[in-house]
Known about the structure:
Blueprint: H1 5-33, H2 36-42, H3 52-64, H4 70-81, H5 87-95, H6 98-112
Helix pairs in contact: 1-5, 3-4, 3-5
Amino acid sequence: MEETIQDLLVKLDGLVEARRYRDALSEVAARFIDSPEFKGLADVNGLNGVDDFEFLNHMYKNVFGRAADQNGYVWWLSKLDDDTHSQATAFASMVQSDEFVLTTAATVADYLFV
Length: 114
């Protein structure tokens, strides 16, 4: 089946909208990560900042409710280290992950249908 230009434009529009949403979510995440509240929770070494190790440990514990698995931790650390992801884009990706969505689905459903 051959795609028409209109089909491709619709797909492109969807990709652009997804990019805008991701960028907006990353911006919110960046502001949250920079907040005194987040730093107070995640800055375990007391150096007035959240390094990548602290960030990942905090995210696994508080987003996924578990300790980091070795493979996931190393993968995320490498992405943060090589600047493929910032802490903000990692945060946005983690809170949109299948694991987080499945973990929070019942809570969200309870909230929506109260």
